[in-house]
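May I ask you to comment on the folded chain given beneath this request?
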Amino acid sequence: MLLMAGAWAAGNGTRSNPLTVESAEDLDDLRLAVITGTAYKGVPVPDMGKGMFFKQTADIDLSTKYGREKGNWKAIGPFAGSYDGGGFKISNLFVDEDVNVAMGPALFGPIMADSDDTLYFENIVVDKAYLHVSETTGAIITQIVSGVVVARNNTVDLEYKSGATAEGSQVGGIVGNVVSDWAGFYNNTVKGSFHVASVNAMYVGGLVGILIADGNFTGNTNEAKIIVSGDVSVTAGGLAGQNISSTVIKDNTNKGDITVETSKGLSFIGGLIGVSTVYGYRNTYVGNVNYGKIEFTGRDASLGGLFGLIQGDSTLVLDSCINQANISYHGAGSQEDVYVGGVVGLWETTVGSRLQNFGNILVENADNPYVGGLVGYVREGTKSITLKQSVNSGEITIKKEPAVDGKIAGLVGTTDSLEFAELDSCTNMGDIEIIGTADQTLVTSEYAIVYSGVRFQANACKNEGSVLFLDGTIGIPTPVVAKSMEIRVAQVGEGRITLEIPGMESFAAGRVRAGVFSYDGRRLPVNLDASGNLLHLEGLPSAGRFLVRVSMPSGNRSIPVTLH
């Protein structure tokens, strides 16, 4: 086919024959056509590019036209078309509000489609994006405002820095916020970093800042690290800062570390979602995994390996989600609210199944923290909590001088006033270590701490961790501690301790093991003799404070003993 001079061999803008994009000049021309409703490559473009399809056919380096010495990229939008990146790169997308006014700090946006259209943003590779802005944004899309939108198979590598007036902004690697009729995110990957400094009330997510539209998130990965510092409160998650929608969120992975250092407000940090607020919405979380470490230094915070806060009624599905990363809280100044859980910091829903935590939890210099291997705290207003077939394998370490307080448990740190709490076939395999003198308000348990008046059941649960059991007082109403088989000190003498295990069958006595440790961690030689339900330990120093760790078929227990 021969083309006359001046003709375009670039498609007609349909899905089967899209208009092509192959240079920075083409992107500029596309922007102009979308904004003015004029032609692109000889083809008329309706207002906002409504219903048209564009496909990239070559790598594009935006530094030929944009950069610190040349000025900022300007987003293509409002946009109501579809764009296929073809797997080719768009490199050096540059927007810096210190250079000049940021006119839409993303490749596209906002996206505004009719409800009967489905728009596609796919196979886009944004490489080496630099965004220093105050507005709500993502590297590919600023905001998805209306219609049905699918973002799939996209890759972003960005460096984001918060601008001077970014308070309340929503920032994600793919898009800042999503408020459209429906949105699907499939197999997207974000790399790089987010830096938030001295800006209050921001929402930061590896893929999405805030998700309000219903939809589906499946198979996405965030590898970008999130770093927050200054006089700031923040809601941050490896996938999304906040979710307020009816969405299936399945088989997503976060590998990006989240580090926060702040002295202001209450921050919510989750390896997957900072805050999931879904009362009245049907939400599904299945098969999600977090590998990104969470480290917080400051005052009030709710930290969870997957969720800082999760809310929902009986329609919410929370199943087979795993945290593989360590969580650390470092207290600075006085605190009122410190909640740390291997999976969920603050719990306000009903049922979780097959949840797992493999990460270690460190809480130091905290005033009265609520810490659990799976759930930190079940907040007042929640009618019940049920955990099924869930496991904590992470160690919990609580450090504070001169005295350690708080409510610490292998599975559920503490419940408030509920109708009932149930643990079904759950296991704690993590040790709980207390470093510092135990305050009278310190309460620890292998399984859970619940308030009196709460109907509690622990069915077929096991403890395989070493737990220092301390049943303190936390006011009225008093706590009820769910624990494995009871052990008490029956008699002490010079270099000798006798422990009683009520209810231990005689056949089990030969399967009991015990070790004695000094408070600096040294294991001491001891002679053990079991008789009925009594354990006799001899050969100890004549005086001192010791920790006796007993292993038996029903689980492990640790108790403090003082010899005079």
Summary: The chain has a mean pLDDT of 87. Residues 24-36 form the longest helix (13 residues).
